[in-house]
UniProtKB/TrEMBL annotation:
GO biological process: dATP catabolic process; dGTP catabolic process; dTTP catabolic process; dUTP catabolic process; response to stress; TTP catabolic process; UTP catabolic process
SUPFAM superfamilies noted in UniProt: all-alpha NTP pyrophosphatases (SSF101386)
Family: Belongs to the nucleoside triphosphate pyrophosphohydrolase family.
Record's protein name: Nucleoside triphosphate pyrophosphohydrolase
Positions of the NTP pyrophosphohydrolase MazG-like domain: 37-110
């Protein structure tokens, strides 16, 4: 093949990766699996790779992060190759688009505006620029443009932030806590009389208020839940280790014993801080 030297050149850089993807998608000589894919079928892999990047960062595994960033970059290359085949866009046009956007959104770095402003003012200016961009795309409503495919908790926070910009927000955190208590009480009191669909709706309301509380506390709910998941795994694995030392498995234990071991694992963690 004419481009084999580039494909096998370890220093081929971005042109090498683009050519590899082009060849994988070649309808005559490419990989059957890659040829069959489309934007919708690849999108879940894109999301998964982004989470794996976040996971490597969370674990401070920099060698792993290098590989995961490559996997994430491949997703961009994959989508741009399909976009090029369909005549929608190319890798170069995608690069130009994001470069233009960064220059446009940072006039205090690349333009005539002063850098002598607070982070809060820079954030406000950024949002004004984004609002103008949305208006240019005929996204006139306040909540337009918040991606549907975001994780639900992340999307809840983004929706709440958008609404808060136009004054639709609780003015102080105590009111959010009151609403959280109200929603929890409603769910608890009505759980035996509601249909499953209604229970799901009420539970969703409770989660939405929890996300709002996180926003008011400056806590990312996705990050907080990931941390809670990791803590649960650590402590449950400690329970398994302690039971194993007794010659038992969790299935051979009971809730009372495991709850006691949980408290022990929790105390060990706190003592190690």
């Amino acid at each position: 093949m004419p481009n084999d030297p580039l494909i096998h050149d370890p220093n081929g850089g971005m042109p090498r990766l683009l050519e590899i993807m082009r060849r994988l998608r070649d309808p005559e000589t490419g990989c059957p699996w890659d040829i069959e894919q489309d934007f919708a079928s690849i999108a879940p892999y894109t999301i998964e790779e982004a989470y794996e990047v976040a996971d490597a960062i969370e674990r401070s595994d920099w060698a792993e992060l290098e590989g995961e960033l490559g996997d994430l970059l491949l997703q961009t290359v994959y989508h741009t190759q399909m976009g090029s085949e369909a005549g929608h866009f190319t890798f170069d046009s995608v690069v130009k688009n994001i470069a233009d956007k960064m220059v446009h959104r940072h006039p205090h770095v690349f333009g005539d505006e002063s850098r002598d402003k607070s982070a809060e003012q820079q954030t406000a200016d950024w949002e004004k620029i984004k609002a103008a961009e949305r208006a240019g795309k005929q996204q006139a409503r306040t909540l337009d443009g918040v991606a549907v495919g975001l994780p639900a908790l992340t999307r809840a926070v983004k929706l709440q932030k958008r609404a808060a910009r136009v004054g639709f927000d609780w003015p102080e955190i105590g009111m959010v806590v009151d609403k959280l208590i109200e929603e929890a009480a409603e769910l608890s009191e009505a759980r035996d009389t509601l249909s499953q669909a209604e229970v799901t709706e009420e539970f969703g309301d409770l989660m939405f208020v929890l996300a709002n509380l996180g926003r008011h506390l400056n806590v990312d709910p996705e990050e907080a839940l990931r941390s809670a998941n990791a803590k649960f795994i650590r402590r449950f694995e400690q329970i398994e280790d302690d039971l194993a030392a007794m010659g038992k498995t969790p299935a051979e234990s009971n809730l009372e014993e495991m709850d006691s071991l949980w408290d022990t694992a929790k105390a060990r963690e706190k003592a190690s801080y």
